[in-house]
Amino acid sequence: MPELIKVRPTKIELVKLKRRLSLSQRVQKIVKDRLSILSMEFLQTARDTVEAKRKLLDELSKLYKALSVAAGYHGYIALEKELIATEVDLKVTAGLGNIAGVRIPSFELMGNVKPMKGYNLVDTSSWLDRAAQLSEESLRAIIELAELQRNFELLAMEINRTKRITNALEYIVIPGLQVTIKYLNMKFEERDREEKARLKRVKVLVARG
Amino acid sequence: MPEPLQNEAKQSPYEKMLQDCLRGELRVVNTGLPQSQKRQSKENKLFYLLNEKYPHVVCNDGSTHFFKKSELEYLASMLDTDEQETLPLPMLIELGANQAEAAIICEGKVEEKVISKALNMPVTCEERRIRIYKPQLALLRRKFKTTTVYVFSPKIVA
Question: Which residue segments constitute the domains of chain A, with CATH numbers given?
Fold first, then answer.
């Protein structure tokens, strides 16, 4: 049951309350629109995250298989020696995007980087090429998943915050204002009726006198 | 409906709080928009953004909105050079009073072509707006995550 707001029962207060109600309804509409967009984006991000996670697991399992075959072919020591040469700095561009007021991070691997192609192609087999290619794909999948998961968390937090505002407006602020306006209207009507009855009574008294 | 109080001095703290909340929400939702005076500038066009090392635009609040190169390249693959020079980014998606649909603000035929190709269906531009429905909006956002932004117009709450 919404609570009455304590106000003086005057016409000025009634006008003020009506203005408050109009304002609250406008705020509610904006917040609801925003919530609907955030929810849509959240669901899409959730779907993409699941897909990206599955893709990453697939890539990693393929990579480990390819790497173990390459290790079996070359031997661990020779493979390690070759892989030392592949160490290059990765360049990931990080920026910020915006979804309905939520600042979300965005990551992207710069250019057509071949971080794993630094080894000697003459002394190595195609097994290692395959493992290198798969590791590059895994790296891209990891970056994609990192972005999606962070977006997922940020959107969830914002949805929670927005939902609290919507609920406060929908269940407390607006009903409270509506009830108070109704109460004041009834009070004024009652006052009018009393006034009329009083006038009638005075009229009768005057007529008798 | 009565208009909100214009004179802040006469407002009660309660009304001020609500007014601030409204302003705050509008400010928050529209922070991601590019600065209006720079919307028509060269720097916001696809062709110039493609050649930048870190493609981005400056937003209303002074922050930057970053574009993914892969998305820009995908957009460029749909258009020829002349069209690339006229496509302003980010594309603006306006949310209407009717929650079931949204509108893409377009300034030329280029946006129409891009949306039509991305959605794989014909779209028409009416009164500088391309109207699409929610499922199409989700599809569009999936393809153009960084090259589209939402606009919450104050008139939808009037």
Answer: 11-208 (1.10.287.3240)
